[in-house]
Structure formats: structure tokens, C-alpha cells
Specification:
776 residues, alpha+beta, Beta-Lactamase, 4 domains, 9-stranded antiparallel β-sheet, 9-stranded mixed β-sheet, GAF-like_dom_sf, transmembrane, Two component hybrid sensor histidine kinase and transcriptional regulator/adenylate/guanylate cyclase, Nucleotide_cyclase
Length: 776
């Protein structure tokens, strides 16, 4: 018998045990362990879920409480902050317009803030004004307390929300006095916002609370502004709030009275419309009553308790910005927040994860495609709009009448240039014939939609900028203040409006470089070179007319003959009379005797001593001086100046020499100064002479009168005259008008100025000076 046929019973037993262990015990043990694990996981999950649900319930209630608290604070805020704003507005206006400001503010607030019910305004004399919304909620009622025939009457005016009056009525006010009302009296000796206790209007079914504030008006009277805020809207908001599935919220005061909450009107009716009786009833509101008890014992925060076999969670918090320490109380069953935990499972999470992944991928693809489509549409739309604007701009320029005539302002050039280039400001500058200065023909501010011009820049002020333009190539500087070519231009011109980027395009014509187009903060300038070139070509043709004019020179021979004849006539004249007035018009000034004049405008024009060589040049110069004096007389008569006095190489122009202040004197003098400057510049340029004059202007008190024997001479003295002369002597460049800060303060709304810096004057100290550039 072979050994293979021998059977070992022990061995077979071991195999059977192993098989049983592998096929029965181990699966059973695994099943038991699995069941035990499921039980342990279930118990642990239950405990964890319960703890998590409790924590989450508190967090959710806290989040809802924070949200409701913020909403309630925002609800009440217009009544508190609005009082401060309204008091500031009404308290700083004259008494004659207080009612209009009150109605304007109240009407706007009633239209935009639904919880505001009405506004009161009363003063310490018993005057009373009211604005409220009508019962229909669409129109407004304005009521004033009036006294007619010794009786107080409420006069009502009815307006639509658009401000159209639709009716009026009167009713007896009896002995009504706003000073006896709680909202007026509780502000006594206080300038803070005070609140009244809520009160009910049974007829309108409105639960209203009033905030009031006391302040002083300009006329010294004490005013009280009050705002009535309706708590009905707040209750409606709380009605709509869902705390969990079945929970809700309520607002109480420190004494447990209901301020707002669900079924507010039913509680008011049950309390006989007495707010003091609207307290929590444990029979009708058992959960809130228990929650309020917990708050009174344990303070604010979340509290759990069981009631009628069901667990509830309440959370109490104080409301900020509220009256009398309002308390927000929220309650909800715990089960409202735990049901979601019972519905979660691993499979739902897996499916949710798969769906989320696919949704994210599909959403990403869709968003990518939508964004690409929108980007393409925006590009096409922008291109179409740009083409339309360009065509419109070219057409607007093309149809402008007398476009190439310099006498026509043609403001369309700077306007279209600013619009097309999307520039903050566009301006056209031209060189003087000798290149010593540039004059602004027109400057258009796109933001303010205003034109200005006539001011100038001297080469001595910005030599680098002039040279950059004369090179003939357009250039753009991203930061004008940091570029040596444009730093001075930025300081004198750009800084007043706060622009940074500068684009300069020289203007060419047959004479060479005659000016420049200047664009400030132009975002589209580099894309519209052709349009800028078009405007530059038109500007070059317009400016060509200036350089083609032949300057009229005075005839030296005729001037010499005239001077010779004048000398012969002078020999036969009577003795010299002490009258140094070039023009005097006492009938215009309205004075005939000496006196003190409170507001005199004094313009001093200082001329440099001329250098002449020979009698011919002397005669020519005297003819020029005679021409300038004639022009000064003409301008003085046109502007109704009081007098023009000649003192050596100075002209002293005066206006406003009246006992009563003349409000137009300074304006007339400023206009005369600008006109004289342009006249002098043109005359000197025609004679091929550099500007040899400076001008100074001041405004203030002076004294003067006629002195000497007949014929008497009028003279003017005072600090105003001295400072005006100081302004003329200290002017930075020839041909400029330097003025004091008093002149700048009076005229800055009518004229353009450049800051000059500080100067020192005896008996006056340090003060600021400005350069009068042009009219606005």
C-alpha cells in the first residue's frame, strides 16, 4: 500500500477547521464586526449629529438674529440719521426758506423710505409744519398751523408725489400747541436724538414711534425736527421672516411690551389700542414668554428648553440704535434644523459629487463660450460706435459755417477733438509772430462742458515746451510733470484740473509751425491720428490769416510834422495847468468832493523807459504813445472808468470812486485791463516792438479828492493804490496782469487765473498774487 493512500484523520480535521474558519467564521465575524461598526458609527453619528445640530441651530439662529438685527437697525436708521441731516440742512438756511427745505427733504424721504410716516417741524414760538403721506400711500399732505381771526387753524395742502398741488382744506386746530407735545418736550436741554414711547392710531391702524432733535436756526430760534416711523412695516418684515420651518421672531422692549411682530394689529386690538397693555401672554405666546423669562434671568444669548414634550431654542439680543433697549427674540423647534441630517447618505454625497463635477465642467465650458461671445460682441459694438462717432464728428466739422475764418470761434474743433480722443481737455494754441509767446485760441473741458481761451504762455516760462513744438513732431508724455519738456506746462495749465497725460500735435502751414493742438488725458489719441491731423490742417489754415496780415507802420514824416506843429502851438498856449488827468469822468462816478471810497478798483500800468536814437525814432515813438493814450481813453469811456491818471511812465486807472460800494467796478476794470493788454500787444507787435509794459490790479478802500486851485486835480491815495503799483512792478513777464488775492477772490468765477506765489508788502505782510489770464 502506497503512502499516498494512507489517510491521516488529524490532517483532515485541520483542513475542515480551516475551511470553516475561512468560509463561515470569518464572514460571520466580519458581518458582526460590520454590524458592530454600523451600530457604533450610528451611535457616534447620532451623538455627533445631535451635537452638530444643536451647534448649527445656535449658529443659524445667531445668523438670522444678526440679519434681522441689521435689518431692524437699518429700518430705524432713517429716523435717527435723518434727523441729524435735516437739522443740519434747515439750521443753515435763512428762515425764509426753512419751509421749502423741510418740504423738499420730507417729500424725498417719504417717496423713498416706506417706513417713514411723517415729519414735524416746530419752533419756540409755536409755529408748526407737517408733511405726511396720504392714506392711499401715493400722495402727500403738507399741513401748517395758522392763526386766523384769533383762532388756530390747520391748513392742509395736498400734493401728488410729483409735486403737483391737487387740493387744500382747513380744520379747527383748537388749542393745539406743538410745544406741549411729548416729542417736543423730551428734547428740552438736549441736542441729542430723543424717542417717544410707541403709540397707536386706531383710525389708520398705524403703530408709530417718534424721534426728535432740537437745534438752533440762523435767526436764533430754537427748532425741533421730528420723524414718525411706522412699526407696521417692521412687523410685516418679521411676519415674512422664516426661522427654520415653524419658528418666528418678535421685538420687545425692556418691560416685555410688544413693539413689532406677527399679528401686531390683533394684539393691539385685544389690548384696546393701549401700547402699555400689549405684553406677552403665556397662553397665546408660550414659547416667547418662556424665552423672555430665560432672557431676564440669564441675559442675552441662546437658550434651550423643553415645552410640552418638544424642545425649543430661543436666542435673545439687544438691538443697536433702538429706543428704550429693544430686545430681538427668536424661537424655533430644534427639529426644524435636524431633519436635513437624517436625509444625508454616502450615496447621495457621491452622486452629488459626480453631478457637481460634471456641472462645474459644463458650467465652465458654457461660461467660457459665453464670455468669448460677449467679448466679440463688445468689440463689434465698440467698433461700430467708434465708426459712427468718427463719421458724425467729421460731418459736424464739415458743416460748420465759416470754418476757415479766424473771426468765427468754431468751437466745434476743440469739442469734437475732445469727444473723439476721449480727452479731459482739448485746446488750440497759436504762436505770436515772433514766437515769444503762445495764446490759447480755445480750450474745451469735456468734464465741465465749458470753453475758455485768450490766456497766454511766455517763452521765458517754458522754453523747453516751445522748442519741443517747434521741432514739428507730435509727442505724447504719460506723466507731464516728470518730463522736462512739459513740466512747466503741467504746473501752469494742467495742475488746476488734475490731468497727467499730455499729447501735443504741432500745427503746420506755409509759414512753418504756427501753433499746436494739446490734448490732456486723451485715451484714444493714438488711434485717431488722422482726425487730429485733419483738425490740425484746418487750424493751420485758420491761423494763416493772422500771419498774412501786413502790419501798419506809422508814417515817420507825418508824425514829425505833427510833432513840429504841436510844438509851435504849445508856444502860444497859456501857462501850464496842474492837471495830469488823461481822462476824468466825475459824472460817471457820481462824486464831486473829497471822500473815502470803500471799494475802489485800481489798475497801474508801468512802461519801461524807451531807448531812442535820433529824432525820427523819437517822433515815431511819440506817435505810438499818442495812439496808446487814445486807445486808453476809448477803453476807459467804454468801461465807464472814473479816471485815468498819467504819472511819468505810469498810467493809473480808477473805478468805483463812490461813497457807496459799486459792485460792478472791479468787473469793469478787469475787462478794461484785458482789453488794454490786447490793444497794447497788438500795437507794439505792429511796430515790431517787444512788450514793454506790466500791469497791476488791486481792489479795496481808498481816499481821494480834488486838490489845488482851479483847475483842481483829482488824486487818489491809500494802500490799494500802493499795492496795485507793487503788483505792476513785481510782474514776472512783460505784458502780464498781476493781481492780489482780493481781486482773485472776487473774480475767480468769471475769469481765469494762474497762481503767481507769495509777495511781501509793507504794513500788509505776506500775501498771494495771481496772474489774470482771460475771461471764462
Amino acid at each position: 500500500m502506497s503512502s499516498d493512500e494512507i489517510v491521516d484523520p488529524t490532517f483532515q480535521h485541520d483542513v475542515s477547521i480551516r475551511r470553516v474558519l475561512l468560509h463561515l467564521v470569518l464572514p460571520l465575524l466580519a458581518l458582526v464586526l460590520g454590524i458592530l461598526a454600523v451600530v457604533l458609527i450610528g451611535v457616534h453619528s447620532y451623538r455627533t449629529t445631535r451635537a452638530g445640530v444643536q451647534s448649527l441651530t445656535h449658529e443659524l439662529l445667531g445668523a438670522v438674529q444678526h440679519y434681522i438685527g441689521q435689518e431692524v437697525s437699518d429700518y430705524i436708521m432713517p429716523a435717527a440719521a435723518g434727523n441729524i441731516i435735516a437739522a443740519g440742512m434747515i439750521g443753515h438756511v435763512p428762515a425764509a426758506v426753512q419751509d421749502r427745505v423741510f418740504y423738499s427733504y420730507g417729500g424725498a424721504m417719504l417717496r423713498s423710505v416706506p417706513q417713514i410716516q411723517s415729519f414735524y417741524l416746530a419752533d419756540d414760538e409755536g409755529h408748526f409744519t407737517l408733511i405726511t403721506r396720504r392714506k392711499d400711500g401715493k400722495n402727500q399732505e403738507r399741513t401748517t398751523l395758522q392763526v386766523r381771526n384769533g383762532h388756530k387753524v390747520f391748513h392742509h395742502d395736498y400734493y401728488t408725489d410729483d409735486g403737483e398741488k391737487i387740493g387744500e382744506a382747513d380744520d379747527d386746530a383748537k388749542d393745539y400747541d406743538p410745544r406741549n407735545r411729548p416729542w417736543y418736550q423730551n428734547t428740552e436741554n438736549s441736542n441729542e436724538i430723543k424717542w417717544t414711547q410707541p403709540y397707536l392710531f386706531a383710525t389708520d391702524k398705524q403703530f408709530v414711534m417718534t424721534s426728535s432733535m432740537r437745534f438752533k436756526a440762523q435767526d436764533g430760534h430754537t427748532l425741533v425736527f421730528a420723524t414718525n416711523i411706522s412699526l407696521n412695516e417692521l412687523s410685516g418684515f418679521l411676519d415674512k421672516i422664516k426661522v427654520g420651518k415653524t419658528g418666528n421672531a418678535i421685538i420687545l422692549d425692556s418691560k416685555g411690551r410688544v413693539m413689532a411682530g406677527r399679528h401686531l394689529m390683533q394684539q393691539a386690538e385685544a389690548a384696546g389700542w393701549d401700547p402699555n397693555k400689549m405684553v406677552l401672554n403665556p397662553k397665546t405666546h408660550p414659547v416667547f414668554a418662556r424665552g423672555f423669562d430665560h432672557y431676564r434671568v440669564r441675559g442675552v444669548g441662546a437658550h434651550s428648553f423643553a415645552l410640552n414634550g418638544k424642545r425649543y431654542v430661543t436666542i435673545a439680543s439687544l438691538l443697536p440704535n433702538s429706543s428704550e433697549g429693544w430686545i430681538l427674540l427668536l424661537s424655533a423647534p430644534e427639529s426644524d434644523f435636524s431633519s436635513f441630517a437624517e436625509q444625508s447618505s454616502r450615496q447621495s454625497l457621491q452622486f452629488a459629487g459626480i453631478i457637481i463635477v460634471f456641472s462645474i465642467v459644463l458650467a465652465g465650458l458654457l461660461i467660457r463660450q459665453v464670455r468669448r461671445s460677449e467679448r466679440s460682441d463688445r468689440r463689434l459694438e465698440a467698433q461700430a460706435n467708434q465708426i459712427s462717432r468718427e463719421v458724425s464728428a467729421v460731418q459736424q466739422v464739415a458743416v460748420t459755417p465759416r470754418l476757415f475764418e479766424l473771426s468765427n470761434d468754431s468751437l466745434v474743433l476743440t469739442e469734437q477733438l475732445a469727444h473723439m480722443a476721449q480727452a479731459r481737455r482739448a485746446s488750440i494754441w497759436r504762436f505770436l509772430h515772433d514766437g515769444s509767446a503762445m495764446i490759447c485760441e480755445d480750450s474745451y473741458d469735456l468734464k465741465q462742458d465749458t470753453h475758455s481761451g485768450g490766456f497766454e504762455m511766455s517763452r521765458t516760462e517754458m522754453e523747453a515746451f516751445f522748442q519741443a513744438i517747434e521741432e514739428g513732431e507730435a509727442f505724447t508724455v504719460a506723466r507731464a510733470a516728470s518730463d522736462p519738456r512739459t513740466a512747466q506746462f503741467e504746473r501752469l495749465v494742467m495742475r488746476e484740473v488734475g490731468t497727467r497725460e499730455l499729447s501735443v500735435h504741432p500745427v503746420h502751414n506755409a509759414e512753418g509751425i504756427v501753433g499746436a493742438l494739446v490734448l490732456e488725458d486723451a485715451s484714444m489719441a493714438e488711434h485717431l491720428v488722422y482726425f487730429v491731423d485733419l483738425v490740425g490742417s484746418i487750424t493751420g489754415v485758420r491761423l494763416a490769416s493772422i500771419y498774412n496780415r501786413s502790419a501798419e507802420q506809422p508814417d515817420a514824416q507825418s508824425t514829425a510834422d505833427a510833432m513840429h506843429q504841436a510844438l509851435q502851438q504849445a508856444a502860444s498856449l497859456p501857462a501850464t495847468r496842474f492837471d495830469n488827468m488823461l481822462m476824468r469822468a466825475p459824472q460817471m462816478g457820481g462824486v464831486s468832493a473829497s471822500g473815502i471810497y470803500p471799494a475802489v478798483a485800481v489798475l497801474v500800468i508801468t512802461f519801461s523807459d524807451p531807448v531812442v536814437d535820433g529824432s525820427a525814432e523819437t517822433a515815431q515813438l511819440l506817435a505810438l504813445i499818442d495812439h496808446l493814450a487814445t486807445e486808453v481813453q476809448r477803453i476807459a469811456l467804454e468801461r465807464h472808468l472814473f479816471a485815468v491818471e498819467v504819472a511819468g511812465h505810469r498810467l493809473i486807472c480808477m473805478a468805483g470812486c463812490t461813497a457807496e460800494e459799486d459792485p460792478t467796478a472791479l468787473i469793469r476794470m478787469a475787462d478794461a485791463a484785458l482789453t488794454m493788454r490786447e490793444t497794447f500787444m497788438a500795437a507794439l507787435s505792429a511796430s515790431n516792438l517787444e512788450p514793454v509794459f506790466t500791469m497791476g490790479l488791486d481792489y479795496g478802500a481808498a481816499f481821494g479828492g480834488a486838490v489845488g486851485e482851479e483847475p483842481k486835480v483829482f488824486n487818489l491815495w491809500g494802500q490799494t493804490v500802493s499795492v496795485a503799483e507793487l503788483m505792476a512792478q513785481g510782474a514776472s513777464d512783460a505784458g502780464t496782469i498781476q493781481v492780489t488775492e482780493r481781486v482773485y477772490t472776487e473774480l475767480r468765477d468769471r475769469y481765469l487765473f494762474r497762481s503767481r506765489g507769495a509777495f511781501f508788502a509793507p504794513h500788509l505782510g505776506l500775501a498771494r498774487a495771481y496772474i489774470l489770464a482771460a475771461r471764462r
